[in-house]
Amino acid sequence: MRAGSNSMSEMKEGVVDTAAASPDHHETLVAAVKAAGLVETLKSEGPFTVFAPTDAAFGKLPAGTVDTLLQPKNKDQLTAVLTYHVLAGSIEARDILNGIKGNGGTVQYRTVQKQPLTFRMMGDDVVVEDAKGGVARIAAVDLEQSNGVIHVIDGVLLPN
């Protein structure tokens, strides 16, 4: 896990602004947040913890999945996928690691969508497992924002 910067200029931005300007390439995520109508929600006071898939993570989905999700008729499904990447509150990397260590190797957090994400160690990496058994590695952590924190992941999490 790579720690994020905590500079004052980054602290003034919200999670959507930071994802849009991210060097980790979150253009697909930002487009999806806009298509789902979640921009204002994620710009609100929060705090939120967002597990932000990179463009490469979205590229791992089966061909056509992203285009299908971005269609207006699939807004509810897109919203479900995106809100599955968000926790209420500001959960930092140390909170996740302490939870893993203190709970016998795994810890669960409920998303704002009310479904669980399970965190565990895989070698030296912290990974998050979704409801369907998919696993994403947390690649960068603690990108602190004015309304929460972002953790960059290398996969897209899918709810039931």
Care to describe what's here?
With 160 residues, the chain is α+β, with helices and mostly antiparallel strands. The chain is built from eight helices and eight strands. Strands 1, 2, 3, 4, 5, 6, 7 and 8 form an eight-stranded mixed sheet that branches. The radius of gyration is 15 Å and the shape is globular. The two termini are 27 Å apart. The model is unreliable at 1-12 (pLDDT under 50).
Short précis:
The protein is α+β, with helices and mostly antiparallel strands and 160 residues long.
Based on the model shown, name its key terms:
8-stranded mixed β-sheet; 160 residues; disordered N terminus; 28% strand; alpha+beta; 8 helices
What is the string of SSEs from the N terminus onward?
EHHHHEHHHEHEEEEE
Helix content bin: 25-40%
Kindly name the structural category. Answer: alpha+beta
Number of strands: 8
Globular, elongated, flat, extended or rod-shaped: what is the shape?
globular
Q: Determine Rg (CA atoms, Å).
A: 15 Å
What is the arithmetic mean of pLDDT? 86
Poorly predicted runs? 1-12
Classify the beta-strand content into a percent band: 25-35%
Task: Outline the biggest β-sheet.
Answer: 8 strands, mixed
Distance between the termini: 27 Å
